[in-house]
Amino acid sequence: MPKSFYVTTPIFYVNDAPHIGHAYTEVAADVITRWHRQRGEGAFLLTGTDEHGEKVLRTAIGNNSDPKSWTDRLVNDSWLPLLETIDIANQDFIRTTEERHKVAVQKFLQQLYDAGYIYQGSFQGNYCVGCEEYKNESDLIDGSGEFAGQRVCAIHSKPVEQLNETNYFFKLSEFQKPLLDLYEKNPTFVQPESARNEVVSFVRSGLSDLSISRSKERFDWGIDIPWDTSHITYVWFDALLNYITAIGFGADQQKLENLWPADVQVVGKDILRFHAVIWPAMLMAAGLEPPKQVFGHGWLLVGGEKMSKSKLTGIAPNEITDVFGSDAFRYYFMKAIGFGSDGSFSWEDLSARYTAELANGFGNLASRTIAMVTRYFDGEIPAPSQPSDADNQVQSVALAAAKDADAAMQRVAIHEAIAKIWTLVDELNNYITVQEPWVLAKSDETRERLATVLYTAAEGLRILAVLLASVMPQATEKLWQALVGNAAELADQKITELSWGGLESGTKVGELEALFPRVEEK
Ligand code: MSP
To answer: The domain spanning residue 399 has which CATH number?
Structure first.
């Protein structure tokens, strides 16, 4: 069996409900997976929740709850529903509190311990609970406001805590050379390029061993260290392992081999080092291959800062989908922000693009074309005759859009892929304006030409439905139903096998409701 294309999202802390920054990561990973599924690569998307550690524990206690009830409630009420809100088609959802995960984490730890990669030592340093990370002095900045005069975490703007404990350490320092070799041998292991450069120079500057346990004297919301149950596993060590515990590490070797190594691991740039440094080193220590690629995307910013619930700048995804729908959410964030760069969200920009690009650009093209087939050909896709230069031009734009979008998706340049596909939306709109089918419809002499023009427009739309299915699954399904009906499944249409002329003349078109209805001013 050929290996399936395997994509992962980070697993999310369940200390609060999701905001659109979290949804952004999910949508990107989902679009990538759906695209590869449409290439016939048996794609598999994993997402889930990161439930252990001090941050989640403190939030649970702060809310007069215990961590188990707290995480159960938040996962069921907020994180699983998020997947519906933004239309994520994941194959699995892992919670780090699940037995399958805990057992496999312990196996992994024991294996590294037996191989001599783990030792006991004492630790002293700064810890940011928000990041669940040990911080170097260079990671800290001067605090302001209530924290003026203190050094604070650059991400959370809150003071770090002094830790002084006896812990178990992972010999990360031994992996400096193997990691540098990996970055050289696989130059696209970390992407985008700016992220790669940052990681390479970080590793070049030297690696310290990593504390991977916490004493239960401090707190015990985590997975026991198998050979010393007075310690629990450091939350990041536990969390990173979800990518293999969910797919059978230590339990189902065949499944593991079918999926691992992951093809693309999507992460926000704030957690890049964990994924591009610590994670591949852990895997190497266990004799497993590193993932093929870790892609660090940018942040959604509010007022120039990372959007976050703790800074009260989070926007709930359904605030947007309730008004514009999930397709528009997915389209907007994937198209408007270069994948890998930071971007700002604004209601004005979203609303303007919704109207111009989705309602007037794509939606109107679809409804006009179907309406004209209905009116002029009794709802039957007409047969084309000899193509003119203009018709040939549409065909070549369509095929180039498919090829260029696929090439962009291979580089995980999602925004570029959509821009390439949009050349076909623009071409078709222009084609209809120039060909004026409503004028051709006035005379019997131009009936043959009218048939060719409407066939060309409808076939262009069929290709658009296939190419946009991964970004806008709902609108494209409606369009597919109207054009092709049940004769074939949209999900089965292979991007790599797209050719002109797939739409059968004589097919009865169905009704098409407005794909992107007018949004009333709120
Ligand atoms: N639990 C860890 C990840 C462990 S993976 C083994 C974590 N969780 S998180 O909930 O804080 O963040 C999850 C993801 O959401 C990260 O990729 C993070 O970058 C992303 N985002 C959180 N806020 C974001 C924005 N404002 N903008 C874009 N992505 C954001 O880190």
So the answer is: 1.10.730.10
